[in-house]
Design goal:
The complex is a heterotrimer of chains A (147), B (156) and C (163). Helix content of chain A is 16%, strand content 36%. By secondary structure, chain A is of the alpha+beta class. Chain A has a single domain, classed as Beta Barrel (OB fold (Dihydrolipoamide Acetyltransferase, E2P)), CATH 2.40.50. Chain A has a 5-stranded mixed barrel. Chain A is globular. Chain B has one domain. In chain B, 83% of the residues lie in helices and 0% in strands. The two termini of chain B are 20 Å apart. Chain C has 163 residues and is an all-alpha fold. Chain C has one domain. Chain C contains 8 helices and no strands. The chains are: A alpha+beta (147), B mainly alpha (156), C mainly alpha (163). Chains B and C meet through α3, α4 and α7 of B and α3, α4, α5 and α8 of C.
């Protein structure tokens, strides 16, 4: 149950197509700077026009950095089966995304890899972000960060 | 709509520029919005006159002569800026139901404008016919539909 | 926290503000109405401004056009004001620190001041010049200011999303 809701969240999070109403992926995010985040959720903003989720990522040395992940608005997320409250503070998630161009700790998540190794492509066909080749499944694995 | 057109647009110089530019999309979209204001004003005044609601004493042809120029000018700007925006996210638009609706409504609105609407507006006699109200209502509805569908592109 | 910022935070945290901000559809609909009503507000006043600049409808008197468009312009303003307040209600705390939002408010104040000055000065004698193809320079200045300021309001409004 938790895995299913986590997968739904991760996929929904990655669907930032609603964001492209007012800005392009390439205006805010850098397609050449992929990053993988594994961390505990510290904050959830279930808001229009975008949702934001913050995770504490612990690096090899033990230092903790808080990262923001930009997602679609509540309307788009709810149409994909995700509700406010489905994601709880303290849940551990994995987010594959692309870094913001201004260098801040913000990503636009596009592909989510579940703890059991399965990966979920969250982009919308043709939205212009990396990994997109116009199909529902997205381009094969080289669209995400290398392991 | 052929998918290959959209792919070509994405790979064009315009597309490449729009996809890599930081401010390109924002600027183009703002131009699109400003032209929308003018287009909306022109459509509203002409169609309300056609309905006989405003400026009843003034000649329909005279009003249309100036406002049609405003309408077509702003429409051209909207199409140019629209193409630029599509080139930035071509395949997303191709797959978007809202975009398809918008293009269908836009084509219908333009076609309607140059046929039934034009005929009603340019009619020599000044008598108001029942059909004029219908033509004006259809015109306003079509253009409004284009606007709503355009707004929906980012939301669906 | 400065008083104004605190007020914005209270508005932002309110039940209604939060409901709009976290809504599935309400926010999108309110924002869409706000954007599309631009045509009603700015589109119609632009027709009057262009008339005073002598660019369109020169055969129709200025007063005839202003009487014609004002009901629509004011209706558009009412819609923009209500929808704008609702959007502010949802975003108040974020808007407070948003430079584009601040610029938009300043421009809105100016775009309100412009017709106030216009109506209490040159427009008082409109019957002297209402049929002229080109209105007096003060009227043309007001018309140009109106077009520029409204354009600025639209640009600033769009820019809110980028900050």
């Amino acid at each position: 149950m938790k895995l299913r809701s986590f997968a739904a969240f991760a996929g929904a999070l990655a669907i930032t197509s609603a964001a492209y109403a007012h800005h392009s992926f390439s205006a805010e995010f850098d397609g050449t700077k992929p990053v993988r985040l594994v961390g505990k959720i510290t904050q959830v903003q279930w808001t229009n026009p975008h949702s934001y989720f913050y995770v504490d990522v612990v690096d090899a040395k033990g230092a903790v950095t808080n990262w923001g992940c930009e997602g679609a608005g509540p309307g788009a997320l709810s149409r994909r089966g995700w509700k406010k409250g489905d994601l709880k503070i303290g849940d551990t998630i994995v987010v594959d995304g692309y870094r913001a161009k201004d260098g801040s700790h913000l990503v636009d998540a596009r592909r989510v890899t579940l703890p059991d190794g399965r990966s979920v492509y969250g982009g919308t066909p043709g939205d212009g972000g990396p990994g997109d080749d116009g199909t529902i499944q997205g381009a094969p694995q080289n669209s995400g960060p290398k392991k | 709509m052929l998918r290959v057109w959209f792919v070509s647009l994405a790979h064009s110089h315009l597309g490449q520029y729009m996809q890599t530019s930081k401010w390109g999309f924002a600027i183009v979209e703002t131009v699109h919005l400003l032209a929308l204001a003018i287009l909306g004003g022109a459509v509203l005044i002409v169609d309300l006159r056609l309905m006989g609601v405003i400026l009843k004493k003034e000649s329909m042809r005279q009003i249309n002569r100036d406002l049609s120029r405003l309408l077509l000018g702003s429409l051209i700007v909207m199409i140019a800026s629209g193409v630029a925006m599509v080139s930035e996210e071509a395949l997303k638009c191709y797959y978007s139901p809202a975009f398809r609706w918008k293009m269908a409504l836009l084509a219908t609105a333009v076609l309607f404008y140059f046929t039934f609407h034009r005929r009603a507006v340019l009619r020599q006699s000044e008598d108001r016919r029942f059909t004029d109200g219908i033509v004006a209502t259809i015109s306003i509805s079509l253009w409004l539909g284009v606007g709503i569908a355009g707004r929906a592109i980012g939301l669906l | 926290m400065p008083t104004l910022q605190h007020v914005c935070q209270v508005i932002y945290d309110s039940h209604i503000g939060t409901a709009i901000r976290e809504s599935d559809y309400a926010f999108s609909i309110i924002e869409s109405v706000h954007v599309l009503a631009i045509t009603l507000l700015v589109g119609t006043i632009a027709v009057l401004d262009l008339r005073m600049l002598g660019l369109i409808l020169r055969g129709i008197s200025v007063t005839r056009i202003s009487k014609t468009v004002f009901p629509f312009t004011w209706t558009g303003f009412a819609i923009m004001f209500v929808s704008g307040c609702l959007l502010f209600w949802a975003e108040a705390a974020k808007n407070y620190s948003n430079p584009a939002f601040r610029v938009k408010l300043v421009l809105l104040a100016l775009v309100g001041l412009n017709p106030l000055i216009f109506h209490t000065t040159i427009y008082r004698r409109v019957h002297e010049w209402e049929v002229l193809q080109y209105s007096p320079w003060r009227a043309r200045a007001a018309a140009l200011a109106s077009l520029l300021l409204w354009s600025g309001v639209i640009v600033a409004g769009r820019a809110i999303a980028y900050f």
